[in-house]
Design brief:
This protein is of the alpha/beta class. The protein contains eight helices and 17 strands.
Length: about 300
């Protein structure tokens, strides 16, 4: 195992990095998030041409790089062993590279993690600005000021960007909105800034609940967002707009409940779907009585917009 420094007095972090075939990205992401700090992962597409404002061209024939961090303590060897075993099994199905493990001090970890982030434009108006960076907004910009830390949902992953685009295009001011699986709170903050009358943000992870509280405060929309710990069963009432950036299996399981929670005339965007699972998710939403209104794609990831007519 490589070590970045010999400093053993400060807390240490283990960086876990692995290359994976595109079709293995979803299960590898789930495996790393299960053991990574605050369920955080970075998915780096093989960029061949970087354009402006976060747009880029990728090479579909090259592997995707996935990275997470775990704190080095008495439980880290158990986590490492579980990740190695999981990757070995996944590697029997699709190409998955060797796990690379590197030790970092606390300062190394902070600097390395922050280096993944930059100001990014998503859609026409939405701008994601890490809190430690400066940005001069255009008059029409809706700026999301985030301190991503390690919580999932920071705009780096295509599934998050797809949701942001759908929200920008379809959320109507004055609606009651639900962010299911809030992560860092990025979707809830955008809903509030675009004029939702109330946003309910739910996540089963207490770390994500805290991150969403922080994001709402930082962006001055705490009064418009009600944050809670739980899943769809904690979402009371009907919603004119629902965003659920989770995973295909959970969306399929919750399809009937999502349809029930959606108000007549409302819109639902679901993401976290690898393209191979699109038909399964679409069929489950249609079977729940929803009309499939739009499909957004980025790389191998898909977001579905459905309506309740």
């Amino acid at each position: 195992m490589a070590t970045s420094q010999d400093d053993t007095t400060s807390p240490a972090w283990l960086q876990l990095r692995v290359e994976a075939d595109r079709e293995a990205v979803e299960p590898v992401s789930e495996l790393l998030a299960r053991h990574g700090y605050q369920n955080g992962i970075v998915v780096q597409e093989p960029i061949v041409d970087e354009l402006s404002w976060g747009e880029y061209v990728t090479d579909p024939n090259k592997p995707v790089v996935l990275t997470t961090y775990i704190r080095q303590d008495e439980a880290s060897e158990t986590s490492l062993q579980a990740v190695r075993e999981g990757l070995w099994h996944l590697g029997r199905i699709r190409p998955v590279g060797e796990l690379e493990v590197t030790r970092h001090t606390e300062q190394d970890w902070t600097e390395t993690w922050q280096s993944y982030y930059k100001v990014m434009r998503v859609g026409r108006r939405t701008v994601i600005k890490p809190s430690w960076l400066e940005y001069e907004p255009r008059p029409e910009d809706v700026v999301l000021d985030l301190n991503p830390g390690m919580a999932f949902g920071t705009g780096l992953h295509p599934t998050t960007r797809l949701c942001l685009r759908a929200i920008e295009e379809r959320l109507r001011p004055g609606v009651r909105a639900l962010d299911l699986g809030a992560g860092s709170g990025i979707l809830a903050v955008l809903m509030a800034k675009l004029g939702a009358a109330e946003v309910v943000a739910l996540d089963t992870d207490p770390v994500a609940v805290d991150a969403t509280h922080d994001s709402a405060e930082r962006n001055g929309v705490a009064g418009a967002i009600r944050v809670g710990q739980g899943s769809l069963d904690a979402a009371e009432g009907a919603y004119g707009f629902i965003a659920a950036n989770i995973i295909a299996n959970v969306i399929i399981e919750l399809a009937d409940g999502l349809a029930e929670a959606l108000a007549p005339g409302g819109a639902l965007v679901v993401s976290g779907i690898i393209e191979d699972r699109y038909e399964e998710v679409a069929l489950s939403l249609a079977a729940a009585g929803l009309h499939l209104a739009d499909l957004l794609r980025e790389g191998d990831w898909v977001a579905i917009v459905a309506e309740k007519r």
